[in-house]
Amino acid sequence: MNRHLLAAMAAPLIMLSAPIPAHAQAAAAATPATSTSPEAAALEKLNAEWLTAYKTHDGAALERILADDFEAIYPGGRVMKKADLVKAATNPARTVSDIAWDDLKILVFGDVAVVRARSRMIGKTAEGDFASTNDYADVYVKRAGAWRAVSAHVVRVTE
User: Fold this and answer.
1) Region 96-104: what's the mean pLDDT?
2) I need a labelling partner for 129 at 20 to 30 A (CA). Which of 5, 73, 109, 144 fits?
């Protein structure tokens, strides 16, 4: 048999038998954190503080929760950085009269976590009243012992 053909046939088998990197093994082995885990409790608290900050115009809470390199993708493909989000949330022309969330899921992978839920918000802007339902996934990274949100992806839900 041709030596080159034999080498080409063996290459995929070698790739399949290669060891899986440790970080990939850890991610594959991660399981959802329970509501009793300290990490999940801390992330659940941050989620509540973040969403409540929209109602209370609490820019300081958002400054603490969001990493400096935070970026979010909102419906329509709009990208917002930390400063953009803090400015929008603290805008006095925008009020949130009610906000609620449910179906909260928290997945912890060592120093990285995903917080996923559905939120419902009612309020008013300069353009008029609004009501929205959104699914979101927030990515947190533990830096210097504290969880910071580094990314968010928000999808509008039509019910």
Assistant:
1) 94
2) 73
